[in-house]
Amino acid sequence: MWSYKLQCFECQRGFPAQEAGFRCKICGGLLEVIFDLAEKREPAWKSRQLSVWKYRELLPVEKEECIVSLAEGGTGLHHCKRLGRKLGLKKLYVKNEGENPTGSFKDRGMTVAISKARELGKKKVLCASTGNTAASLAAYSARAGMECIVLMPKGKVAGGKMLQVIMHGAKLIQVRGDFDQALEMAMELADKRREFYLMNSINPFRLEGQKTLAFEILHQLGERCPDVVLLPVGNGGNISAAWKGFSEFQQLKIVRDRPRMMGIQAEKAAPIARAVKSRQSKVRPIHNPQTIATAIRIGSPASWPKVLRAIRESKGTAETVTDRQILAAQKELATLEGIFVEPASAASIAGLKKLSEDGQVDPSETVVCVTTGHGLKDPSVLERLPKSQTGYNLEITGASRLERLERVL
Ligand code: F0G
């Protein structure tokens, strides 16, 4: 591991890494891990398999024996020719993060953060979640033998994610209200009771794991930088982590350029897109956010300063999509490419469609859509599909079944 420090994102003050707080003690800003990359060259990565820990020199875990892993990362970067043709794009790729062990990109961050928690001697971990963070934390804390507490908004979490949390033996607490309230409670509890180690994305160690998404994309494209990367945005941790990853590879001179980062939000849960479109320097929370994409049903994104910087520095943008567009994109990706993702993930595809129709993505550009979670996480989508798409209306019973079968084919 290369040397690093924790630094305030706002006032740039440095703190020793052992101080496992989440906010700058002086100005209250978010913290980030800064690696000393001066004079550094690419390590012997080539011989290692694609995975999060391939990049261990750039991950803030000192003791190898503390690493808790379920084989995360190394997800497919799929060239989507059929969908690309439909959208008028030749070089469309989908980085399918649903291929991670618990079915979402959260595992990249969780393997690093839980390893760090172990290194710091923590025994109890805590998060608030719309579902995927909780499922991932539940699995990794089970693997590490740690106690796990998750707070989730009651009645607003997809069934598959609930099942994962329960199956892995986490203590599940449902909170009346939105994710935003659950996160506030988790932060208050972590502040008050230091034995509970907060694992939400304001934990800077988690974002370090998530930045490996960018490293993998660059390696999978043969060390060529894509022009555009689109991601669904909730709290904003992932898009900022990816931006940090692209920036570190540029600093290491592995690539010359960085992509435009485009954040996609659901229309009625879009505080970031609203701020970007109206050129605000701050993000104002939205009350009572609504969308079928429950993973990104977030009104008060914790990492907003990092997101705004990533979008601004990269000359990217943010866009909104309706629930109807999300569902159509989910079905289209599954039907045309065999890639089944949850609704929040399909937002990146729906957003691409809108932005390319708008001329903000050029047909000749190399585009990567990040799909963040597996489609099986949220079976409730079945109820929302038009009956004609489900096969519910095709049924055969009784005598001369084969004849009837042939008739409906
Ligand atoms: N896609 C999926 C499937 C998610 O679960 C999330 C966030 C996002 C996108 C957005 O990522 O917050 O880093 O901008 N899910 C969190 C959770 C909030 O609790 O599982 P972000």
Task: Please characterize this protein's 3D structure.
This protein starts with a strand and ends with a helix. The longest helix has 15 residues, at 237-251. Helices cover 35% and strands 16% of the residues. The chain has 409 residues and is an alpha/beta fold. Strand 6 (124-128), helix 3 (132-144) and strand 7 form a beta-alpha-beta unit. It has a domain at 77-103 and 206-385: Rossmann fold (3-Layer(aba) Sandwich), CATH 3.40.50. It has helices at residues 81-87, 106-119, 132-144, 159-167, 179-192, 204-210, 212-220, 237-251, 271-277, 304-313, 323-337, 343-357, 401-408, and strands spanning 4-8, 14-15, 31-35, 77-79, 91-96, 124-128, 147-153, 171-175, 196-198, 228-232, 260-266, 317-321, 366-371. It contains 13 helices and 13 strands. It has a 6-stranded mixed sheet with strand order 4-5-13-10-11-12, sandwiched between helices. The protein has a 4-stranded parallel sheet with strand order 8-7-6-9, sandwiched between helices. Helix 2 runs parallel beside helix 3, helix 3 (132-144) packs parallel to helix 4 (159-167) and helix 11 packs across helix 12. The structure holds ligand F0G. Ligand F0G is lined by residues 104, 129-133, 201, 232-238, 295-296, 342, 344-345, 372-373.
